[in-house]
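Hi there,

I know you've been waiting on this one. I reran it after we fixed the sequence typo, so this is the corrected version. Both the input and the resulting structure follow.
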Amino acid sequence: MRQGRVLLADSYLPMLKGVRSLLESLFAAVVMVADEGSLLETIERLDPDLVVVDLSMPVKEGTNIVRQLMARFPRLCLIALSVHDEPVVAAQMRDAGVAGFVLKRTAAMDLIPAVEAVLGGGSFVSPAVSELESRRDH
């Protein structure tokens, strides 16, 4: 049986709908928001088990959305979605406290394993990021 609540945040509606379709079979409630204000309000109201947020979501403050969320909700279980495949970006997000880092271009393959790892108490980074890192090291 599906349990729990996930909050999806992305200002790009087609991506938001695609992510929702991936997660609907896993959660009892899948809530979507498309802006910073709705995201913050919904986290407080819904108390989601997981938040999946676009790293590039526009914010009013000078910091990125992930750093803002982790500062305001330090116990938040968060997966960042990103178009940026640079290993340094994934490392910065891990340092900021995210449990998962999923590339948008590989979300169809990586999001379910990321959710399972994160909700199981682990962490996840899209394999394509690790592959880039290992290629640069050689």
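Quick highlight: The CA atoms of residues 51 and 121 lie 14 Å apart.

Best,
R. S.
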